[in-house]
Amino acid sequence: MSTQIEATDINNQGHLLIGGVDSVTLANDYGTPLIAYDVSEIRQQIQHFKKIFDRAKVKHQISYASKAFATVAMYQLVKQEHIHCDVVSGGEMYTALKAGFPMDKISFHGNNKSRAELEFALEHKVGCIIVDNFHEIDLLQDLTRASQQPVNIMLRVTPGISAHTHEYVMTGQEDSKFGFDIKSGQAQEAMKKVLAAPFLNPIGIHCHIGSQIFSIDGFVLAAQKMMDLVLKWKKDFAFDVPIVNLGGGFGIQYTDDERPLQPEVFIQAIIDEMKSIAAKNEIDLPEIWIEPGRSIVGTAGVSLYTVGSHKNIPGVRNYVAVDGGMGDNIRPALYQAKYESVVANKMNEPANVTVSIAGKYCESGDMLAWNQKLPATQPGDLIALLDTGAYGYSMASNYNRNPRPAVVFCENGKSQLVVKRESLADITALDLSLNES
Ligand SMILES: Cc1ncc(COP(=O)(O)O)c(C=O)c1O
Ligand SMILES: N[C@@H](CCCC[NH3+])C(=O)O
User: Which residues are part of a known binding site for substrate?
Assistant: First the structure.
């Protein structure tokens, strides 16, 4: 749901619709807190990315960065749309496998993959392992020598670019835990090792400069740095890099005053830069891969909460507390992330009260949104926090032993539960009683 809600997103009872489904009905049927996705919006975003590349007529691959939202149903939806996925843990890989997602369309990321995770990836023949460090090269050499099975790999490099975004979501700068540093020669040394390894089949290079990026400069610079490597490795190793993967990071609109660029602007700038460098140096344009996460699911998700207590401190702040919070959305507490909200059962009432939306967790920092202009609320009203589809549920916890919320998919006026609400029994499911002494 975009922050600009259309008239068609409101029914004649003044209720917010999500994927054509009345949000009040969703809350009644599934309870709150509830994360509801408009599935057609996810499909449209994927199609949109595909069309941008198809129009530019360049070889490409779109790999959904599943850390943004990874559940069985989501992998199945991505499978229906025929794109790739990237995973960053054995858990994501296992979920994809359980979903019946084709393993040859999986890229496996991570800065400290365990031997067991790599074994799992090799056993299930993932499409590509995105190798991050020398320890991983050694592990993979051991494992592939033992199995005598080759594996496709890409080297993740850090291009030394500081994207303009929150420092916790910047990843391309030199001082980063991810990838082989280019400047100090690590990337060069890594490539040499890979080329000498009998069972490591290099299919490309990868970089990811960060997340929620609003300017094209970082992407263009990243494209240049990757092409520099392509040219260098052609000269030094007579190796033609088949694929350049530029990661994700395309920013989305969370608040009314943000104006993110459309993905086509970023992607066209990347394509133009790479094409011009390839033409100037008379080499073939490598295949271009991207890994959007947030821009595929972010605006498709809405978090629904029931209003409970109110606290008005005259002249200071008006708090409205809801039945969720940092356990289902850590982003405001972690990154000072901002969201817009509406009262989903009062869409046609005047928004004339300024409130800040507090969660129910035992932390002062457990706030979901500050200074929101909303209609006056009473206990039982339904607040919808918009654009929470990325890194909400996937970063959820059961802090304070609050159960994690349910997730529902809505499409063409129908809803389907895709993640059950955690129960109180689930909360203690892994606990063991103290031994009798
Ligand atoms: C390697 C990699 N690829 C892709 C992504 C997806 O980023 P975003 O959700 O910002 O598109 C991330 C997350 O930042 C990442 O670390
Ligand atoms: N989790 C972050 C983005 C980091 C993505 C992982 N590299 C967010 O919510 O914005």
Answer: 294, 331, 335, 363, 391
Q: pTM here? A: 0.96
Residues 324, 303: contact at Cβ < 8 Å? yes
The annotated binding site is made up of 249, 291-294, 331, 335, 363, 391
Domain 109-292 class, CATH top level: alpha beta
The secondary structure of residue 74, as a DSSP letter, is H
Q: Tell me, yes or no, if the two domains 7-38+301-427 and 109-292 fold the same way.
A: no
Q: Is 169 in the pocket of ligand 2 (CB under 6 A)?
A: yes
Catalytic residues: 362
Q: Where are the domains of the chain?
A: 7-38+301-427, 109-292
pLDDT tens per residue across span 319-340: 999 999 999 999 999 999 999 9
Ligand nearest to the CA of 169: 2
Cα separation of 381 and 302, whole Å? 16
- Angle in degrees, 0-180, between the axes of helices 90-98 and 115-123, rounded to the nearest 10: 30
Given this structure, which CATH class describes domain 7-38+301-427?
A: mainly beta
Distance 391 CA to ligand 2 centre (A): 6
ipTM: 0.98
Cβ of 37 below 6 Å from ligand 2: no
